[in-house]
């Protein structure tokens, strides 16, 4: 009997955990089983203080083609609800994870694959990457991918992608705010490492506080955002790592983080 190959490869190296989508024969489509593996892995990572930053990656010409249409055809309402609900939980886990999450996008990211990129905190793309929400072409509006997409890019850009289904280039995605950097494909890993190295050098505790507050204040008016930020920063500065960081700066030494 042939053992089932995992649809998600988990690689850990010096504080960086890479979640590598592993369905090359299906263009790394987000099957229900792959989404469930992602959900389980992200839940474990959230509790693992040795993980400082997460990278979501894949190999080949496609980052992720979105949901697996072969799997989706002819399902019941309950099955569709389960698939889309699981996907929504995964995207929110990425957003709510204490650790920063970086998408490493080497190729096409379409539909729920584009959604996954938009859900990540940072995204680094190769100059060969393209992004699309092409559901309209098969009669299925990319409603769930729309949620993080419109929280990353201007409404007009999001609507262009959603209404036409046409892909945008990596450079346009950069200008629109969907990705942070675009580099030649042979420099992609180095570009990702620049981000992971900077993040790993910082306090996990501090990054978790900051990431949570960043998203919490986005939908607040300025006055309420400041009220909350003052309270969060006050609690932050009382933490060990903030006190240690200030002392290390004044003493001109490398800080020793508690986390």
From TrEMBL:
GO terms for biological process: fatty acid metabolic process. Belongs to the enoyl-CoA hydratase/isomerase family. This is Enoyl-CoA hydratase domain-containing protein 3, mitochondrial. The keyword Repeat does not apply. Pfam families: ECH_1. May play a role in fatty acid biosynthesis and insulin sensitivity. The keyword Plastid does not apply. The gene is paaF. Keywords: Fatty acid metabolism, Lipid metabolism, Lyase, Transit peptide. GO terms for molecular function: hydro-lyase activity.
């Amino acid at each position: 009997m042939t053992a089932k190959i995992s649809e998600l490869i988990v690689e850990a190296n010096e504080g960086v955990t890479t979640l590598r989508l592993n369905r090359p024969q299906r263009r790394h489509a987000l099957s229900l089983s792959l989404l469930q593996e992602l959900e389980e892995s992200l839940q474990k990572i959230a509790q693992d203080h040795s993980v400082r930053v997460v990278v979501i990656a894949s190999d080949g010409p496609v980052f992720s083609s979105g949901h697996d249409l072969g799997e989706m055809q002819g399902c019941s309402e309950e099955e569709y609800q389960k698939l889309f609900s699981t996907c929504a939980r995964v995207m929110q886990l990425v957003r709510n994870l204490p650790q920063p999450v970086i998408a490493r996008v080497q190729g096409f990211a379409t539909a729920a694959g584009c959604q996954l990129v938009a859900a990540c905190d940072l995204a680094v793309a190769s100059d060969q990457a393209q992004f699309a929400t092409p559901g309209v072409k098969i009669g299925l509006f990319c409603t769930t991918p729309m949620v993080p997409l419109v929280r990353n890019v201007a409404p007009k850009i999001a609507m262009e992608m959603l209404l036409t289904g046409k892909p945008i280039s990596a450079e346009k995605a950069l200008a629109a705010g969907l990705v942070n950097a675009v580099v030649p494909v042979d420099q992609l890993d180095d570009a990702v490492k620049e981000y992971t190295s900077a993040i790993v050098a910082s306090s996990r505790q501090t990054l978790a506080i900051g990431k949570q507050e960043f998203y919490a204040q986005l939908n607040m008016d300025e006055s309420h955002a400041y009220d909350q930020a003052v309270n969060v920063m006050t609690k932050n500065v009382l933490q060990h790592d903030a006190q240690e960081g200030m002392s290390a700066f004044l003493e001109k030494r490398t800080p020793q983080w508690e986390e």
